[in-house]
Amino acid sequence: MFEIIDKRELCDKVYQFKIRAQHLAKKAKAGQFVILRKDEMGERVPMSIGGLDPASGVLTVVIQEVGKTSASMNRMKTGDHFADVVGPLGIPSHIEKFGHCVCIGGGVGIPPIRPIAQALKEIGNKVTTIIGSRTKDLLIFEQELREASHELLISTDDGSYGTHGFVTTILQKMIDDGGHIDMVIAIGPVPMMKAVVATTREPKIKTYVSLNPIMVDGTGMCGACRVTVGGKTRFACVDGPDFDGHEVDFDEMTKRMKMYVRYEKQAYDRFLQDEHCRLAKAAEAPKDKNA
Questions:
Q1: Whole-model pTM?
Q2: pLDDT computed for residue 277 by the predictor
Q3: How far apart are CA 34 and CA 46, in angstroms?
Q4: 20 to 30 A Cα–Cα from 251, which one of 56, 62, 75, 235?
Q5: Contact 50, 115 (CB under 8 A)
Q6: What is the CATH number of domain 2-89?
Q7: What is the DSSP string of the chain?
Q8: How is the beta sheet containing 84-89 ordered, strand by strand?
Q9: Looking at the domain 100-256, which fold is it?
Protein backbone atom coordinates (compact mmCIF):
# COMPACT_ATOMS: atom_id res chain seq x y z
CA MET A 1 0.00 0.00 0.00
CA PHE A 2 1.34 3.42 -0.98
CA GLU A 3 0.26 6.37 1.14
CA ILE A 4 -0.79 9.74 -0.27
CA ILE A 5 1.07 12.14 1.99
CA ASP A 6 -0.19 15.27 0.24
CA LYS A 7 -2.87 16.06 -2.32
CA ARG A 8 -3.76 19.46 -3.73
CA GLU A 9 -5.72 20.90 -6.62
CA LEU A 10 -3.61 22.60 -9.29
CA CYS A 11 -6.47 23.73 -11.51
CA ASP A 12 -9.89 22.51 -12.59
CA LYS A 13 -9.94 18.68 -12.51
CA VAL A 14 -6.15 18.47 -12.17
CA TYR A 15 -4.60 17.28 -8.89
CA GLN A 16 -1.09 16.76 -7.62
CA PHE A 17 -0.37 13.70 -5.49
CA LYS A 18 2.75 13.15 -3.41
CA ILE A 19 3.01 9.42 -2.78
CA ARG A 20 5.30 7.59 -0.40
CA ALA A 21 7.12 4.96 -2.47
CA GLN A 22 10.56 4.66 -0.93
CA HIS A 23 12.32 2.17 -3.18
CA LEU A 24 10.76 3.49 -6.37
CA ALA A 25 11.68 7.12 -5.61
CA LYS A 26 15.30 6.12 -5.04
CA LYS A 27 15.56 4.14 -8.28
CA ALA A 28 13.51 6.21 -10.75
CA LYS A 29 15.11 8.65 -13.17
CA ALA A 30 13.89 11.60 -15.22
CA GLY A 31 11.60 10.60 -18.08
CA GLN A 32 10.34 7.35 -16.59
CA PHE A 33 6.76 6.60 -15.56
CA VAL A 34 4.74 4.51 -13.11
CA ILE A 35 1.50 2.55 -13.25
CA LEU A 36 -1.05 3.31 -10.53
CA ARG A 37 -3.92 1.18 -9.31
CA LYS A 38 -6.37 2.67 -6.82
CA ASP A 39 -7.59 -0.59 -5.28
CA GLU A 40 -7.78 -4.33 -5.89
CA MET A 41 -10.55 -3.91 -8.48
CA GLY A 42 -9.05 -0.83 -10.07
CA GLU A 43 -7.75 -0.21 -13.59
CA ARG A 44 -3.99 0.05 -14.08
CA VAL A 45 -3.18 3.57 -15.31
CA PRO A 46 0.21 4.84 -16.53
CA MET A 47 1.30 8.20 -15.08
CA SER A 48 4.37 10.32 -15.79
CA ILE A 49 6.62 11.19 -12.86
CA GLY A 50 6.41 14.89 -12.06
CA GLY A 51 8.92 14.94 -9.24
CA LEU A 52 11.30 12.73 -7.28
CA ASP A 53 12.60 13.11 -3.74
CA PRO A 54 14.89 10.10 -3.12
CA ALA A 55 15.82 11.30 0.37
CA SER A 56 12.25 11.18 1.66
CA GLY A 57 11.11 8.38 -0.66
CA VAL A 58 8.35 10.49 -2.23
CA LEU A 59 7.32 10.77 -5.86
CA THR A 60 4.95 13.27 -7.42
CA VAL A 61 2.31 12.53 -10.04
CA VAL A 62 -0.30 14.83 -11.54
CA ILE A 63 -3.67 13.36 -12.50
CA GLN A 64 -6.09 15.01 -14.91
CA GLU A 65 -9.68 13.86 -14.68
CA VAL A 66 -10.71 12.58 -18.11
CA GLY A 67 -12.44 9.27 -17.40
CA LYS A 68 -13.89 7.05 -14.70
CA THR A 69 -10.59 5.83 -13.26
CA SER A 70 -8.86 9.21 -13.15
CA ALA A 71 -12.02 10.72 -11.61
CA SER A 72 -12.07 8.01 -8.97
CA MET A 73 -8.40 8.62 -8.16
CA ASN A 74 -9.01 12.34 -7.89
CA ARG A 75 -11.59 11.66 -5.16
CA MET A 76 -8.85 10.16 -2.97
CA LYS A 77 -7.56 12.20 -0.04
CA THR A 78 -4.37 12.76 1.90
CA GLY A 79 -3.86 9.67 4.05
CA ASP A 80 -5.50 7.31 1.57
CA HIS A 81 -3.44 4.58 -0.09
CA PHE A 82 -2.97 3.36 -3.66
CA ALA A 83 -3.01 -0.41 -3.89
CA ASP A 84 -0.17 -0.39 -6.43
CA VAL A 85 2.49 2.00 -7.64
CA VAL A 86 4.53 -0.02 -10.14
CA GLY A 87 7.81 1.22 -11.55
CA PRO A 88 9.98 2.82 -12.53
CA LEU A 89 9.00 1.86 -16.07
CA GLY A 90 10.32 2.91 -19.44
CA ILE A 91 13.78 4.06 -20.48
CA PRO A 92 15.03 7.24 -18.73
CA SER A 93 15.41 10.38 -20.83
CA HIS A 94 18.78 10.70 -22.52
CA ILE A 95 20.73 13.15 -20.36
CA GLU A 96 24.07 14.41 -21.61
CA LYS A 97 25.94 17.66 -22.17
CA PHE A 98 24.09 18.92 -25.27
CA GLY A 99 24.63 22.64 -24.79
CA HIS A 100 21.44 24.71 -25.03
CA CYS A 101 18.39 22.56 -24.30
CA VAL A 102 14.80 23.69 -24.75
CA CYS A 103 12.28 21.74 -22.67
CA ILE A 104 8.67 22.18 -23.75
CA GLY A 105 5.58 21.16 -21.79
CA GLY A 106 1.89 21.57 -22.48
CA GLY A 107 -1.07 20.88 -20.17
CA VAL A 108 -0.41 17.89 -17.90
CA GLY A 109 2.75 17.28 -19.92
CA ILE A 110 4.31 20.13 -17.93
CA PRO A 111 5.05 18.21 -14.68
CA PRO A 112 7.20 15.45 -16.27
CA ILE A 113 9.32 18.15 -17.95
CA ARG A 114 10.46 19.24 -14.48
CA PRO A 115 12.77 16.29 -13.57
CA ILE A 116 14.18 16.29 -17.12
CA ALA A 117 14.98 20.02 -16.98
CA GLN A 118 16.56 19.54 -13.55
CA ALA A 119 18.74 16.67 -14.77
CA LEU A 120 19.88 18.58 -17.87
CA LYS A 121 20.68 21.65 -15.81
CA GLU A 122 22.60 19.69 -13.16
CA ILE A 123 25.15 18.36 -15.66
CA GLY A 124 25.85 21.80 -17.10
CA ASN A 125 23.42 22.42 -19.95
CA LYS A 126 21.78 25.79 -20.44
CA VAL A 127 18.07 25.04 -20.01
CA THR A 128 15.26 27.15 -21.43
CA THR A 129 11.80 25.83 -20.62
CA ILE A 130 8.63 26.75 -22.48
CA ILE A 131 5.26 25.85 -20.96
CA GLY A 132 1.81 26.54 -22.32
CA SER A 133 -1.88 26.19 -21.55
CA ARG A 134 -5.19 27.35 -22.95
CA THR A 135 -5.61 30.04 -20.26
CA LYS A 136 -3.68 31.38 -17.27
CA ASP A 137 -6.02 29.54 -14.88
CA LEU A 138 -4.96 26.19 -16.38
CA LEU A 139 -1.22 26.80 -16.15
CA ILE A 140 0.55 24.52 -13.66
CA PHE A 141 4.05 24.01 -12.22
CA GLU A 142 5.22 27.53 -13.06
CA GLN A 143 7.35 28.01 -9.94
CA GLU A 144 8.73 24.49 -10.11
CA LEU A 145 9.92 25.04 -13.68
CA ARG A 146 11.43 28.44 -12.85
CA GLU A 147 13.59 26.70 -10.28
CA ALA A 148 14.51 23.85 -12.61
CA SER A 149 15.51 26.06 -15.56
CA HIS A 150 17.77 28.97 -16.37
CA GLU A 151 14.91 30.65 -18.22
CA LEU A 152 11.16 30.04 -18.25
CA LEU A 153 8.91 31.27 -21.07
CA ILE A 154 5.11 30.99 -20.98
CA SER A 155 2.38 31.00 -23.61
CA THR A 156 -1.40 30.93 -23.37
CA ASP A 157 -3.77 30.30 -26.25
CA ASP A 158 -5.98 33.26 -25.27
CA GLY A 159 -3.17 35.65 -24.34
CA SER A 160 -4.26 35.88 -20.68
CA TYR A 161 -0.67 35.32 -19.52
CA GLY A 162 2.73 35.38 -21.16
CA THR A 163 2.95 35.22 -24.95
CA HIS A 164 -0.35 35.13 -26.85
CA GLY A 165 -0.14 31.93 -28.86
CA PHE A 166 1.27 28.44 -28.52
CA VAL A 167 4.54 27.01 -27.25
CA THR A 168 5.60 26.80 -30.89
CA THR A 169 5.04 30.56 -31.23
CA ILE A 170 7.85 31.09 -28.73
CA LEU A 171 10.01 28.31 -30.17
CA GLN A 172 9.70 29.68 -33.71
CA LYS A 173 10.67 33.18 -32.53
CA MET A 174 13.76 31.77 -30.83
CA ILE A 175 14.74 30.07 -34.09
CA ASP A 176 13.94 33.15 -36.22
CA ASP A 177 15.98 35.37 -33.89
CA GLY A 178 19.01 33.17 -34.51
CA GLY A 179 19.18 31.64 -31.05
CA HIS A 180 21.30 28.49 -31.10
CA ILE A 181 19.43 25.41 -29.88
CA ASP A 182 21.14 22.04 -29.55
CA MET A 183 18.25 19.89 -28.38
CA VAL A 184 14.51 20.09 -27.81
CA ILE A 185 12.33 17.75 -25.75
CA ALA A 186 8.55 18.10 -25.75
CA ILE A 187 5.87 16.48 -23.60
CA GLY A 188 2.17 17.18 -23.90
CA PRO A 189 -0.87 16.63 -26.12
CA VAL A 190 -0.12 14.86 -29.40
CA PRO A 191 -1.03 17.91 -31.57
CA MET A 192 1.41 20.03 -29.53
CA MET A 193 4.26 17.54 -29.89
CA LYS A 194 3.54 17.17 -33.61
CA ALA A 195 3.67 20.98 -34.01
CA VAL A 196 6.97 21.18 -32.12
CA VAL A 197 8.48 18.53 -34.41
CA ALA A 198 7.24 20.42 -37.48
CA THR A 199 8.90 23.58 -36.15
CA THR A 200 12.30 21.94 -35.59
CA ARG A 201 12.35 19.77 -38.71
CA GLU A 202 13.66 22.32 -41.24
CA PRO A 203 16.40 23.74 -38.97
CA LYS A 204 17.30 20.11 -38.15
CA ILE A 205 17.26 20.51 -34.38
CA LYS A 206 17.47 17.21 -32.51
CA THR A 207 14.00 16.73 -30.99
CA TYR A 208 12.70 14.15 -28.55
CA VAL A 209 9.06 13.58 -27.69
CA SER A 210 7.60 11.55 -24.83
CA LEU A 211 4.75 9.46 -26.22
CA ASN A 212 1.61 8.57 -24.27
CA PRO A 213 -0.35 6.00 -26.33
CA ILE A 214 -2.92 3.61 -24.88
CA MET A 215 -1.11 1.31 -22.47
CA VAL A 216 -2.21 -1.79 -20.52
CA ASP A 217 0.55 -3.82 -18.88
CA GLY A 218 3.54 -1.49 -19.25
CA THR A 219 6.00 -4.35 -19.81
CA GLY A 220 5.83 -4.83 -23.58
CA MET A 221 3.67 -7.96 -23.50
CA CYS A 222 0.25 -6.65 -24.59
CA GLY A 223 1.35 -4.53 -27.55
CA ALA A 224 -1.34 -1.91 -26.94
CA CYS A 225 1.14 0.97 -26.84
CA ARG A 226 2.74 0.23 -30.20
CA VAL A 227 3.77 3.22 -32.26
CA THR A 228 5.56 3.56 -35.58
CA VAL A 229 8.94 5.25 -35.34
CA GLY A 230 11.24 5.42 -38.34
CA GLY A 231 8.95 3.03 -40.19
CA LYS A 232 9.32 0.35 -37.50
CA THR A 233 7.00 -0.78 -34.73
CA ARG A 234 8.09 0.28 -31.26
CA PHE A 235 6.45 -0.12 -27.85
CA ALA A 236 6.27 3.09 -25.83
CA CYS A 237 6.43 1.25 -22.51
CA VAL A 238 9.75 -0.54 -23.06
CA ASP A 239 11.36 1.22 -26.05
CA GLY A 240 10.33 4.69 -24.84
CA PRO A 241 8.54 6.77 -23.79
CA ASP A 242 11.09 9.13 -25.44
CA PHE A 243 11.62 8.86 -29.19
CA ASP A 244 13.16 10.90 -31.99
CA GLY A 245 10.24 13.18 -32.80
CA HIS A 246 11.19 13.52 -36.46
CA GLU A 247 10.66 9.78 -36.95
CA VAL A 248 7.29 9.38 -35.17
CA ASP A 249 4.14 8.67 -37.19
CA PHE A 250 1.86 11.06 -35.30
CA ASP A 251 -1.12 10.57 -37.63
CA GLU A 252 -1.23 6.84 -36.93
CA MET A 253 -0.81 7.42 -33.19
CA THR A 254 -3.66 9.96 -33.17
CA LYS A 255 -6.03 7.47 -34.82
CA ARG A 256 -5.13 4.73 -32.33
CA MET A 257 -5.63 7.03 -29.34
CA LYS A 258 -9.18 7.86 -30.50
CA MET A 259 -10.28 4.20 -30.52
CA TYR A 260 -11.77 4.17 -27.02
CA VAL A 261 -12.72 7.82 -26.48
CA ARG A 262 -16.45 7.07 -26.83
CA TYR A 263 -16.32 4.28 -24.25
CA GLU A 264 -14.22 6.38 -21.90
CA LYS A 265 -16.81 9.15 -22.01
CA GLN A 266 -19.67 6.71 -21.38
CA ALA A 267 -17.91 5.27 -18.30
CA TYR A 268 -17.10 8.77 -17.04
CA ASP A 269 -20.70 9.95 -17.47
CA ARG A 270 -21.98 6.90 -15.55
CA PHE A 271 -19.47 7.56 -12.76
CA LEU A 272 -20.61 11.19 -12.42
CA GLN A 273 -24.27 10.16 -12.49
CA ASP A 274 -23.73 7.52 -9.79
CA GLU A 275 -21.74 9.99 -7.71
CA HIS A 276 -24.52 12.56 -7.98
CA CYS A 277 -27.08 9.95 -6.86
CA ARG A 278 -24.93 8.95 -3.88
CA LEU A 279 -24.53 12.56 -2.78
CA ALA A 280 -28.24 13.22 -3.19
CA LYS A 281 -29.15 10.17 -1.09
CA ALA A 282 -26.67 11.19 1.60
CA ALA A 283 -28.19 14.67 1.74
CA GLU A 284 -31.72 13.27 2.05
CA ALA A 285 -30.83 10.70 4.72
CA PRO A 286 -32.25 11.53 8.19
CA LYS A 287 -29.63 12.89 10.52
CA ASP A 288 -28.88 11.18 13.86
CA LYS A 289 -30.33 13.42 16.54
CA ASN A 290 -27.76 12.14 19.01
CA ALA A 291 -24.81 13.03 16.77
A1: 0.90
A2: 84
A3: 6
A4: 62
A5: yes
A6: 2.40.30.10
A7: -EEEEEEEEEETTEEEEEEE-HHHHHH--TT-EEEEESSTTPPPEEEE--EEETTTTEEEEEEE--SHHHHHHTT--TT-EESEEEEEESPPP-----SEEEEEEEGGGSTTHHHHHHHHHHTT-EEEEEEEESSGGG---HHHHHHHSSEEEEEETTSSSSEES-HHHHHHHHHHTT----EEEEES-HHHHHHHHHHHHTTT-EEEEE-----SSSSSSS-TTEEEETTEEEEHHHH-SEEEGGGB-HHHHHHHHTTTHHHHHHHHHHHHHHHHHHHHHHHHSPPPTT-
A8: 45-48, 33-37, 84-89
A9: Rossmann fold (3.40.50)
Average pLDDT over residues 8-15: 94
pLDDT of res. 289: 57
pLDDT score recorded for residue 281: 78
User: Is 291 a residue whose pLDDT tops 70?
Assistant: no
